[in-house]
Amino acid sequence: MPANIGRMNNLRVVKEKDFGVYLDGEQFGEILLPKRYVPKGLKVGQQVDVFIYLDSEDELIATTLEPKVQVGEFAGLMSVAVNQVGAFFDWGLPKDLLVPFSQQKNRVEEGERHLLFVYLDQVTNRIVATTKIDALLNREEPPYRTGDKVEIIIGDKTNIGFKCIVDNRFWGVLFFQDAVGQVRKGDKLPAFIKRVREDGKIDLSIQQTGYKKVTNLLDQIIEHMEQNGGEMPLTDKSDPQEIFRVFNVSKATFKKAIGALYKEQKIVLRKDKVTLK
């Protein structure tokens, strides 16, 4: 399988040096994995997962660090510097990710958070990004049904909710009433399809739709309590944010689930906690 610049690769060690090891980069030849990234005990002939990119000298280099986003993916990242070339974003590697001025939908300022798409410049082999992402989405018919689980990236806030990237393929909308808990631009989280409109637009929800979200929650609550000595400090009086942190649901959904478990005589409700019966 050929090696890919800008992606995680599983490569074989072919040579050891004092300053690191060389990996079989297939069509790119041997690629250095610097000593500071070499896992302890790694020997010639063994495989290692690495990310390949160009260093400051425009030479191919490998690292065992995994960036926040890879080539072919969208992400919400923070701009850490701007100069005469463009804006640079923190993506989890020592060398920041460049968005050239020509690839900026709106001029990026330092400290701003933007949605972007990472791609490989086929001429230079440099990994760069663009904030001009509209044309890269909604290029096919959405294949979803109500209740399907998807992964979303939170985008710009509008007067009705948040624009979201769905599964790296589509635009969707998360209305305020369906955005349980605190969300911010760039957050990546699971969500559910609430509806696909006739015009192809997608409505999203952080929670599963219908009573299915309650029935699924019942098992989660029981399992959570079993793993914590048969009890939990959350009750129907608990803070909504704390409920969302633990179970990723609204307080209303949590109360329905607790009520169902109580009716089934599986739990005992106490003043400051819930226990298994």
Structure, explained:
With 277 residues, the protein is mainly β. The protein is 13% helix and 37% strand. The protein is built from three helices and 18 strands. The chain has helices at 212-226, 240-247, 251-263, and strands at 8-17, 20-24, 30-34, 47-54, 60-63, 74-82, 86-89, 97-100, 113-120, 127-130, 149-157, 161-166, 170-175, 188-196, 202-205, 231-232, 267-269, 274-276. It has a five-stranded antiparallel β-sheet, with no helix packed on it. A five-stranded antiparallel β-sheet has the order 8-7-6-9-10, with no helix packed on it. It has a five-stranded mixed β-barrel with strand order 11-12-13-15-14. Strand 7 and strand 8 form a beta hairpin. Helix 1 (212-226) packs across helix 3 (251-263). The chain is globular and about 65 Å long.
Strand order in space, largest sheet: 3-2-1-4-5
CATH level-four homologous superfamily name of the largest domain: Winged helix-like DNA-binding domain superfamily/Winged helix DNA-binding domain
The average pLDDT is: 90
Q: What is the count of helical runs? A: 3
- Low-pLDDT segments: none
Brief characterization of the structure:
By secondary structure, the chain is mainly beta.
